[in-house]
Amino acid sequence: MFSFGPLCFLSLTSLFISVMRRFFLVLFLGNFLLISRLDSQNLVSNGSFEDHTDCPEFLAQIELCQEWWGGGGTPDYYNSCAEGGFMSVPSNVLGFQPSFDGVAYSGILAFHQNAPEYREFLMTSLVSPLVVGQQYFASFRVSTSYTIGYRGFCNGLGIRLEMDSASFAEPISVGSPMIYSAQIVSDTSIWTVVSGSFIADQPYRYLSLGNFYTDDETSVKSSDGLPPVCAYYIDDVRISADSGFVNSLAEPISIRAMDCADVLWNSLRREIVYSSTTPL
Question: CA nearest 212: which of 98, 152, 123, 105?
């Protein structure tokens, strides 16, 4: 039978500690570089709405989310840190939906039957201006909020790039999004992915997100027979020249065409993908 003396035991212990230190150092550096790479790919800062200056208490407090503000109307901010459940995640005043990424998301009103042409737009500044002539890929995730008084569904939700900022006092105008959902978004239990690509024709500096079509151009439906009011949760906004980063979804198990949109059912992340860049 072999036996180890004290010196041999100490040597083995020191070797083990040294190896484990190197292992965890490599693991830490690998994760840090991966996160840094992903962050640098996304031209949307705080795309998952996690960073905030304070916890929301009421509707219309998107300014509490860092890097975001209202480009028209009064968008909402939801975060699990909110007390009382009114603006919390997953349960809040407009329904129930776990966040796609992290513990927060935003909310907008896309159509209101009794408030003609009313829209709410999210807005943020890009990390850097777009390069003219470069192809970019964009996506965001949307889920239908569903509660009494907010049981309408519509299409037209999309992203548009802007040269100038906008605000509640000077809202952006509707028309010509870069990407949008041609199909009515009506699922209340999963996140729908809206994605597409475009060629930058100007050095755009800002992103706006909402329904860019007029009431007459927007297709709507109601689930309870009442005048439709279409409210949506928004999460995971991305813009990048790297298509792999923007479209980093799990492998779809089926594909079928739906008019202007391609719809993919993703069983692993339970989401639907609507992709369209052509006019409604």
Answer: 123
H helices within 138-254, ranges in order?
A: 243-246
Q: Which residue(s) pair with 174 in the sheet?
A: none
- List phi, psi (to 5°) of 199: -105, 125
Q: How many CB atoms lie within 10 A of CB 95?
A: 18
Distances (CA, A) of 251 to 187, 196, 267, 273: 21, 17, 9, 12
Task: Encode pLDDT of 171-210 as tens digits.
Answer: 999 999 999 999 999 999 999 999 999 999 999 999 999 9
Report d(CA 24, CA 33) in Å as an integer. Answer: 14
pLDDT at 30: 42
Say how many C-beta atoms besides its own lie within 10 A of residue 38's C-beta.
14
Q: Distance from first CA to last CA of the chain, Å, rounded?
A: 81
Among 207, 198, 213, 191, which residue's Cα sits nearest to residue 273? 191
* Nearest of 175, 241, 245 to residue 208 by alpha carbon: 175
pLDDT in tens, 108-165: 999 999 999 999 999 999 999 999 999 999 999 999 998 878 889 999 999 999 999 9
Return the structure tokens found at 84: 């009382």
Q: Is the dihedral of CA 29, 42, 190, 229 positive or negative?
A: positive
Quick one: which H or E segment has residue 25? helix 6-41
* Placement of tokens 């850097």 in the chain: 128
Residue 73, Cβ density class (10 Å: 0-12 exposed, 13-18 middle, ≥19 buried): buried
